[in-house]
Design goal:
- The chain is α/β, with parallel strands linked by helices and 333 residues long.
- It has helices at 3-10, 14-21, 28-41, 47-54, 70-85, 99-111, 126-134, 156-169, 185-201, 218-231, 243-255, 273-277, 289-304, and strands spanning 59-64, 89-94, 116-120, 139-142, 150-154, 175-179, 211-213, 237-240, 265-267, 284-287, 313-316, 318-321.
- Strands 2-1-3-4-5-11 form a 6-stranded parallel β-sheet, with helices on both faces. It has a 4-stranded parallel β-sheet with strand order 7-6-8-9, sandwiched between helices. A two-stranded antiparallel ribbon has the order 10-12.
- Helix 5 packs parallel to helix 13 (289-304).
- The chain is elongated.
- The relative contact order is 0.12.
């Protein structure tokens, strides 16, 4: 079977079949006739022939920091759902939170045929910026903001501010903060800056003995919580840059016989599965991760179809999810 056979059986032109197979515009009546023939014959177009003819692979490279993350999984789900509608597939590359691997994969995707790249970014070094400037294919960035590029990112500053403010309203006076590297502008810097602003608004000092840097793991959250307690046993709340860190902090507090939230409140960011099923459930910030992936895929498809030339910046909102770990049933006594 070839495209001519399909056209003859459906009673349409070869051009109509081509538009159908390439997700172009075609009347509903012709689309239905072609669809029936394709289903009856089991016809599958040659991907290699399509690539040679159109110079398109119908592949989008997606660079992501890790796989074992609810938030990353949601972003990828949004990307793949949207790309599938347009007949595109994803090629995933995971970097284990290593900026050097991000650079390596940017080079790989730049020199090997993918039609575009979606980068779930962590940091931007000068080498990142140089490579992005040299890339001749569309690039959309998710999770960070970089001027001059299409970006889908979250309101991390206001999320950090609102989460901290709500916890302080519960009566906690001596909160700690477990962050991540400041080079990660969204998670490491913006969320912390929101925390600092809320503290200042409430007349509270940010004590260096109550702040520290962790990696993105539960184990690191456990370790850093222990270090904070050793340095400052008067801590009555801890805000963590991610839910995974918050889960680790909670485990440490329990091992130290601290009651949550009566002795120490715990909060995180991300609204992952664990935050809702732990005991007690963890107060957190819900970000629209799946939507960010879908928006990124939609933008890259518009660029590939020539419908979008200027860079687009979209900042998504958030919701603070108040749960049992911050004593939300009543102010702290």
């Amino acid at each position: 079977m070839n495209i001519g056979d399909i056209a003859e059986m459906a009673g349409v032109s070869r051009a109509a079949v081509s538009r159908y197979l390439n997700h172009g515009y075609i009347s509903e009546e012709k689309k239905e006739r072609i669809r029936k023939v394709v289903e009856e014959t089991g016809y599958k177009p040659s991907i290699m022939a399509q690539t040679l003819r159109t110079k398109k692979t119908r592949l989008i490279g997606v660079i992501l920091p890790r796989i074992n993350s609810d938030s990353i999984s949601s972003v990828v789900e949004g990307i793949t759902d949207e790309l599938t509608k347009s007949g595109y597939e994803t090629l995933l590359a995971t970097t284990a939170n290593d900026p050097e691997k991000e650079i390596e994969y940017l080079k790989v995707f730049s020199h090997n045929r993918v039609d575009g790249v979606i980068l779930l970014a962590t940091v931007f070094t000068e080498e990142h910026k140089r490579l992005l400037e040299e890339m001749s294919i569309p690039v959309v960035i998710v999770g960070q903001r970089l001027s001059g590029y299409s970006c889908i990112y979250h309101d991390d500053f206001d999320a950090g501010h609102d989460l901290t403010r709500k916890i302080l309203e519960e009566g906690y006076k001596c909160p700690a903060y477990i962050g991540v590297l400041k080079e990660d502008i969204a998670v490491g810097t913006r969320r912390y800056e929101g925390f600092v602003k809320a503290m200042e608004e409430n007349g509270l000092a940010v004590d260096p003995l109550r702040t520290c840097i962790a990696d993105f793991s539960i184990e690191s959250g456990y370790q850093k919580m222990g270090e904070l307690l050793d340095q400052n046993p008067t801590i009555d709340a801890v805000i963590c840059a991610t839910d995974r860190i918050a889960v680790g902090a909670m485990r440490c507090l329990k091992d130290r016989w601290k009651r949550i939230p009566e002795d120490v409140a715990v909060a995180g960011f991300g609204d992952n599965v664990a935050s809702a099923v732990t005991t007690p459930s963890i107060t957190t910030v819900h970000f629209h991760y799946k939507e960010s992936g879908a928006q990124a895929a939609a933008i890259i498809m518009e660029q590939l179809m020539g419908k979008a030339v200027a860079s687009a910046e979209i900042k998504l909102g958030y919701e603070v999810m108040l749960r049992q770990s911050t004593h939300v049933k009543g102010a702290k006594e």
